[in-house]
Amino acid sequence: MKMEKMPLKELPYFARNVLATLSLQEHKDSATIVALRGNLGAGKTTFAQALAKELGVRDLLQSPTYVLMKSYPVEFDHFTMLVHIDAYRLEKPEEFRTLKPETFLHDSQTFVLIEWPEKVEGILPKADMTIEFSSEGAEESERFIKLT
Hints:
alpha/beta, Rossmann fold, seven-stranded mixed β-sheet, 3 helices, 20% helix, 30% strand
């Protein structure tokens, strides 16, 4: 699939479609993981905010760059928890273990959004969906997005 141009104002609709797609998947015995890839400023956190709002998070979701992970209670479909991870500052995948991923990765009611998933390759299970963002060649009010 190639990169598609999307106005930022359409991210809530895109987030809604992502959730609808993931809700159609068979329920499993582990967390649902969505990996967000892209350079700094590409739109990962903006999308995460739109998705969190669709999940019912009332607070403004802020990137957990310095704390690495934030959790939010949600009530959407079978999900009861949103875990937002920003792995940008991790230097080695093993550092991911300090977040105690076993406490949330084995919970089928947890929705995990991870920015910079390449930083924890080999430690994090395979994502259910990967979304790539790019601002290269895009206007300020749009991004290129690819869903895999």
